Amino acid sequence: MRKIIHYIDEHYSEKLLLSDIALKEDLSLTYLSHFFKDYLGIPFQEYLAKIRCEKARQLLLLTDFPLLDICMSCGFSDSKYFNSGFRRQYGCSPKEYRLNFRHDQLKQQQKSMLTTQEFLYAASSIVILERCLLPFQ
């Protein structure tokens, strides 16, 4: 089964059919289908959709690639299938996911900028205090 999982992980962006994998591994389609569900707890198509959605999620977070490019590069046959599969997996559309992440990322950056400003303010306050106290020493 590891060999099959590895094959799927390497070829998720291509058109993958369980029947082709069964033929390649010299197994019956019925046997492989049941074995897959017993081994992973989910059917082949659901596993493949999860892998594709996870790869798409990574591209949404790490790149500025257009959604259609991400859709195609992750093996989805069309954007409707991509959107519905992604929504099922993550509870929102790919576009919403990217926008929400960027909004959260911006909030984090603003938080760290405030921290930096506070630090600089504190540092300049120390310098001012030292200048004021220096004549008294």
From TrEMBL:
Keyword DNA-binding on entry: yes
Membrane spanning residue stretches: none
Alphabetic keyword roster: DNA-binding, Transcription, Transcription regulation
Statement: the UniProt record of this protein carries the keyword Transcription regulation: yes
Gene Ontology MF: a single term: sequence-specific DNA binding
Residues covered by the HTH araC/xylS-type domain: 2-100
Gene3D superfamilies tied to this protein: Homeodomain-like
Protein name: HTH araC/xylS-type domain-containing protein
Organism: [Clostridium] clostridioforme CAG:132
Organism classification: Bacteria, Bacillati, Bacillota, Clostridia, Lachnospirales
